[in-house]
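User: Okay, second chain of the day. Same drill as before: sequence in, structure tokens out.
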Amino acid sequence: MAILDLAGANQSTVSFITGFGHRLYSNDFLRQLDQSFGKGDFYENQADPRAQQEFLEGALHFPDEQFDGALVWDVLEFLSAPLLALVVGRLHRVLRPDAGLLAVFHSDERAETVPSYSYRVQDHKTIQMAPRGQRKPAQIFNNRSLERLFQDFQSVKFFLTRDHLREVIVRR
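Assistant: Same drill. Structure tokens below.
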């Protein structure tokens, strides 16, 4: 299988995924977001169509239906509405039919900032979350908004964790 990991490369995830004989493609999506849109107003900059296309070409330039799964983690929370729609559309394109996607969203609707993390898969039961600082989310997602976001996908399932994270598993 081919897996896309948007948390960036780290040895524990690489070892875990490749240990099963799968291929892993890593990309530090948050770092690319900061590099592309970080000068000035982060969210306002994401509305520029030219910058959006440059970002997509750098961050998600893959052939259609290349991946059997995607570890998206918490990165979608930090995308403004226009860029979010483009990124989810691109993810839909690069995933094969029946591919799985894992995303994480904070559930505290009153939060002005939320922690962002670098995720590392330790083993089949453990994901280590290394703090990357606080960020202002573009929006807070509830179950209904997540269903709309992934409306072109086959199914969406939600799981609420103890630490107020909403894990979302999506099937293309």
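The longest strand covers residues 95-106.

User: Thanks, on to the next one.
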